[in-house]
Every structure is written in C-alpha cells, then in structure tokens.
Amino acid sequence: MPALEALWESRQLTNNGPFHQQLEQALCQFLDVPELALFCNGTIALLAALRALDLEEGEVITTPFSFVATTHALRWAGLTPVFADIDPVTLNLDPERVAAAITPRTRALLPVHVYGRPCDTAALDALAARHGLKVLYDAAHAFGVRTPGLLRAGDLSVLSLHATKVFHTFEGGAVICRDAAMKRRLQQIRNFGFVDELTVDSVGINGKLNELQAAIGLLQLPRYDANNQQRAAVDAAYRAGLAALPGLALPPGTDPLSHNHSYFPVRIQAGFACSRDALYERLKLQGILTRRYFHPLISRFPMYAELPSAQPDHLPMATQAAQEVLCLPLFAGMSVADSARVIDAIQAVTRSG
C-alpha cells in the first residue's frame, strides 16, 4: 500500500509524525471543530482530558449507563463518581437528576452521548455554568453526529476511535478542544509532560497515536459517508421488519443530523414472547451475536456498588434500561440481507413463544 510504504520510508513511526498531523487536520475539518488532539485510545484520552481540566479531587456526576471505562477514568484520576439517573427515552443523563446530585464537593459533569444520541447539552452546560462546574463529554459513540455544535459543547469532548466504532484507527482516541492553548496542554500530557527536549513541567503519560494507526485513519475517513449510508440501510430494514412485534420497542427516530447509526438498541419489554436474556441466548445459538449493552450497570460492579449514588432505587430508569436493552448486529460491511436473517430469527421467536 502506498501509504504504508511512505510511512516506512519516512522512518518516523510515532511521536507526532506526518500522518498523525494530517489526520488531526483532516478530522478537524470533517467534524467542524477548532482543535483536536489524537491519543492512543479513548480511555487515555479521557484521563488526559480530566488532567487538562485540572480535575484532581472532588466529585464528578456521571451516568451509570455507559461502558465502564467512563467511570474507571474518574477513579484513575482520583475523583469520586456520583451517579445520576437517565432519561427514559434518550437514555442519556437527565439534567433534573444531575441538578439534584450537585453538592459543594461537585467539580464537574461527565455526560455520555449514549449510542451516539446527543445529550441535552444546552441544559447540562447551563447547569454547569450556574454552579461553576467543568463539563467533559464522553462522545465515544458520537463520531460524525451532525447536530450543530454537539462536539463544541462543554469544555472538552472525547472520542473513541476503537475498532468497534463507525470510524476507527484500530485503537485510538481524540480530545476535541476550543483553542490552541488547550491543544498544547493536551499534547504535553500525551508526551510525558515534555515542553521541549530537556524540560518536563507537568505530570504526563505516554498517550501518543502511532503513525500506522494514523495512516489507517486517513485511509478510512474518505469511506465514512458510504459506510454510514450502508448502516442507515440496515437501520431502516430493522425498523421495517420489527415495528409490529409486541413488546419490542425500537430506538427513537433517526434524524439524520443526530444519528450516526452506530448502534441499534431495542428494548425487550412486557408483552414480548420471552425475556431479553432468553432472546439473547436463542439468537446466540443461531450464530447471531447481540450485546446487552449496557448490562450490568456500572453502578453494580463491586468497585462502585457501595457508593450511596449507586443504589438501584436511586437509578430506576437506568436499572430498567439495563434489564431491557439488546443491541442488534450493526457493523461495517453488514448488508440488508444480513439484517433479514436477524429479523427472521426474532420473528420466529415471537411465533414460537
């Protein structure tokens, strides 16, 4: 491949090389954001963002309905997670529940754009402004979502570029920021805190994205729109084939500006032919791999379960969602014919009971 040949000939395999710089510029243009710093993965990007915002102690309000890395990053940074409940429709943090969770020890909010659906950023940002709090958005699922200003909301937003995402670099992450000064701060953090060859003036980490991964990103980015259209076709097929099934609730509608077709989460509720977990197992027997995503809730894992905010009666909407959600297959290269097999299998379950 010409790109990989050029990489090898350059003899620069990492440390902010030419492919790395090109990808940062290309992503800023594609996502319409002012500045972006690439990282080796999304979790390190979250840790770096927390460090860049000088969040080193106190409480951070976040969601229990996310991948566990969201909350692990807070613990690694020495911060105390406080869980607030979610909106029953969007499955994102409920601003009213966030407001009720704020205490004198609260330092920041860490909302998640779950399945790529935008949070109520206007309400969350306004709430943070009233209380003098930082806002860091976990936008791991939200690459390519075109809601105006979404990735410019809050103080920083973090993307995951993991291989399961709609755009990826095998492994990778990025922090979106407002200005060059913050980008320089993030660059220092991802390179051990170095300012120049001889000077280290802050605690940093090795968070660099290497040139091979950056080259993969540059090769993939021009294909994003075509891949997204293919995902949209599968999404539409699922909606048409599953709409009439009792007890199976489809995800909210797909406004093209606020959806990237990254996931297709259905909810298995009263009236369906079997439980969510039984459907998961029956599909698995047919070679159809779904995900109970997110189950268990982060708040049920042992390192978080004893927190006062982690109790199930404090999180009724999140608890219910974790018991109902099943993400159906949706991935790059998946065809409408592939989705028909999934639909047929689910319909067969409803017929057999």
Structure write-up:
The chain is an alpha/beta fold and 353 residues long. The chain folds into two domains: 221 residues, Type I PLP-dependent aspartate aminotransferase-like (Major domain) (Aspartate Aminotransferase, domain 2); 128 residues, Aspartate Aminotransferase, domain 1. It is 39% helix and 12% strand. It contains twelve helices and ten strands. Strands 1-7-6-5-4-2-3 form a seven-stranded mixed β-sheet, with helices on both faces. A three-stranded antiparallel β-sheet has the order 8-9-10. β4, α6 and β5 form a beta-alpha-beta unit. The chain is globular. Belongs to the DegT/DnrJ/EryC1 family. This is DegT/DnrJ/EryC1/StrS family aminotransferase. Pfam families: DegT_DnrJ_EryC1 (PF01041). GO terms for molecular function: pyridoxal phosphate binding; transaminase activity. Keywords: Aminotransferase, Pyridoxal phosphate, Transferase.
